[in-house]
Fold this sequence. Notes:
alpha/beta
Amino acid sequence: MLVDTEFGERAARARNRTLLRCPIDSLKLLGIDPASIKDVVITHLHYDHAGNLDKLPQARFHIQESEVHYACGRHMCQGLFRHAYDIEDVVELVRSVYADRVVFYEGDQTLAPGIELLHIGGHTRGLQSVRVHTRRGWMVLASDASHYYDNMRNISPFPIVFNVGDMIDGYAKLNRFAESADHVVPGHDPEVLKRYPSFGSVDQGIAQLHLEPKPV
Length: 216
């Protein structure tokens, strides 16, 4: 099961980003054939989390219904809200709906034994995080419910936000569903790669989140 699909070369060019490597091709570094992926959790539809859907031909996509409503609804008339969305990614998701490859949720849900979806909102209307049971206990992959450790620690909302109140309430929810504060993994913090043991060489940028982090 894969959580989020990042972005590809087209989106990188459009936003002047440097793409180090295709995130889907990077699964091969773990010995995983992208064509074997059956289930993908999309935490939200921002371009850096929901690209490359066409590179996963066998996958079903698991998403909050409110996120799709948000990405296709009246709020996208405002550049403030739609800036982080990529229309081609949203359209690809809609194509997948018509191909019976999307599973919608309304709120928290157990996806499989040891894997749970947590509806957070805040950053976007339908943002969800993922709770996973590992050898070190329950961890929460926050995605953009907390971009950085300091967002949660200092109750400091990230500036790209749909509902500030939901974002702040989300910090408490992340901690409530994790084994401890050290079991919450923020979505964009480079500290994650420093705290957790690497899989393979450090320059591959793959952290083993199921292992104990290094002392901070």
